[in-house]
Amino acid sequence: MQALASPQHIVAAPVKTKPSQQQVIDQLHEQCQQSVSLIMLHGKEGSGKTTIAEVFLEQASEYAEVAFISANERSTNDRLRAQILNQLFGTISINDESLSRQIQRQRPLKHAIVVIDNGEQLSESFMAECISTVTQLSAIGQRTSIIITGDSRWAQQQRPAPHLRVQGPTMIEVQPLNHDEQIRFVQALLPEKQRSFWNLERIQQFLNSIHGFPGEIQQRLQFTLTTQAARYRDTTTDENADGKDASEQSTAKHSPEQNNRRKMRLWPIILVTVVISLAFAGFLNKEQLTAYWQQVNPESAAPAETTAEETTNTATEAAPEATEQAASLPSFEPLTERSLELVPAELAASYRNALGTLNTVAASEITEGEISLGFIKQQQPQEAEPVGQSNEQSAAEAGIDTVVAQPEPEVKAEQPEPQPQRALPFQTQWALDQNAGSYTLQISIISDPQLLRDFRNDYGITGNTQVYQRADQRYVVIFGSYPSIEQARAAATQLPAEVQQMEPWAKSFASVQSDINSQ
Question: Is the pTM of this model over 0.70?
Answer without folding.
Answer: no
